[in-house]
Every structure is written in C-alpha cells, then in structure tokens.
TrEMBL record:
Organism the protein comes from: Pelotomaculum isophthalicicum JI
Superkingdom of origin: Bacteria
Alphabetic keyword roster: Membrane, Transmembrane, Transmembrane helix
InterPro entries associated with the record: Prepilin_IV_endopep_pep
Protein name, per record: A24 family peptidase
Length: 123
C-alpha cells in the first residue's frame, strides 16, 4: 500500500509495536534500554526531518519507531543500512526524490533475516 498510495495503515505499525511489546516480556534480547532507544532515536530524527524539510510522513515515523522498539536500535540500524542501497537504486531509476519507506524497510528486514539465516547455516 505504501508503494501505490504512499499510505501506511495504522494497523501495520500497531501490529509491529504489539509484537515488540509481547517479545519484550518473552525474549531477553534486545534489552529494554535498546528497545527504548530504538523507539525514540529514529522516531525523533525522522520527526525533526519532517518538521524541517517535509517529505517524511507520519506513517513512516510511526513505522520506524515501532520497528525500532521491536528489533532494538542496533538491529534497526542494520535494517536501515541494508535498505539504503535498494532505495538509492529505486530513486535513481525512477528519478524520484521521495521513496516509499515501508517498502525498503521490508526489503532491508528480509535481507537482514536472510543474512542471519545463512550465517546460522554456516556456523
């Protein structure tokens, strides 16, 4: 939906955040302080960018903050790093300055999960 209409429905980030809340009680990793940092730092950075320059939607801010809480700051940084290359290629090919962030967060997450899976198979 973000790709076609540039809208991130509220149920998506709420579901991701609820998964993060449930996993905070069930899993020891990432630590609560890393989850809180993952919630606040990227969300605040995107909020400041949106207020200063525009172009960052509220759905992008909420989705990134929810993913940061669910995965923790370090993992979110890796996901964003892996999403950067495909996003830059998309922007160059389509010559757009605005990209659908949710699409590339998803791509970055699957790349991160694939790396973990392959690393788990080789170790």
């Amino acid at each position: 939906m973000d790709y076609r209409k540039r809208i991130i429905p509220d149920w998506t980030w709420i579901a991701i955040w609820l998964i993060g809340v449930a996993s905070a009680f069930l899993l020891p990793s990432p630590a609560l302080y890393e989850r809180i940092a993952g919630l606040l730092l990227p969300g605040l950075c995107l909020l400041l960018l949106a207020m200063r320059y525009g172009g960052v939607g509220g759905g992008d801010i909420k989705l990134t903050a929810a993913a940061g809480f669910t995965f923790g700051l370090n993992t979110l940084a890796a996901i964003l790093f892996l999403a950067l290359f495909p996003a830059c290629i998309y922007a160059a090919v389509t010559r757009q300055r605005s990209i659908p962030l949710a699409v590339f967060l998803c791509i970055g997450f699957f790349m991160y999960a694939g790396v973990l899976f392959i690393y788990g198979l080789t170790c």
